[in-house]
């Protein structure tokens, strides 16, 4: 049985759409493909102002990715406190932070040498 190949760019677009559907802020994609020993192709990072919105963004991502790409998330963590939710799509790791957590952990800055794509916030 052959493993089905995932369209990384399509997956990336679906994840961003899921974030934007729930008005996530500060959406960035860190392209990890050129970095030595990177564990995935992309890190997607965004933030929200409340735990309810963090949870809603995570659920929206899961729904849009399943609908558009037919992919289920491999693992999740953080829904129980909705402070920092992580969604693992193997090739793409998604981090949805409460705004204060993103400001504190500054995950965006850990890979300063990664190519960064910044998405415009939708109003």
Describe this structure in words.
Helix content is 33%, strand content 27%. It is α+β, with helices and mostly antiparallel strands and 123 residues long. The chain has one domain (8-107): Beta Polymerase, domain 2, CATH 3.30.460. The chain has a 6-stranded mixed β-sheet. Strand 4 (84-88) and strand 5 (92-98) form a beta hairpin. Interacts with ribosomal protein uL14 (rplN). Belongs to the Iojap/RsfS family.
Keywords:
single chain; 123 residues; alpha+beta; Beta Polymerase, domain 2; six-stranded mixed beta sheet; 3 helices; 33% helix; 27% strand; globular; NT_sf; translation regulation
How many helices? The count is 3
- By oligomeric state, this entry counts as single chain
Kindly identify the CATH topology.
Beta Polymerase, domain 2
Q: Sheet with the most strands?
A: 6 strands, mixed
Average pLDDT taken over every residue: 93
Cross-sheet strand order for the largest sheet: 3-4-5-2-1-6
The class by helix and strand makeup works out as: alpha+beta
Rg over CA atoms, rounded to whole Å, is 14 Å
SSE string, helices as H and strands as E: HEEHEEEHE
CATH architecture descriptor text: 2-Layer Sandwich
Question: Approximately what portion of the residues adopt beta-strand conformation?
Answer: 25-35%
Q: Please state the overall shape, judged from the principal axes of the Cα atoms.
A: globular
End-to-end separation in angstroms reads 45 Å
Number of domains: 1
CATH class: Alpha Beta
CATH superfamily: Beta Polymerase, domain 2
Task: Show unreliable segments.
Answer: none
InterPro entries: Iojap/RsfS/C7orf30, NT_sf
Subcellular location: Cytoplasm
GO cellular component, one term: cytoplasm
Pfam families: RsfS
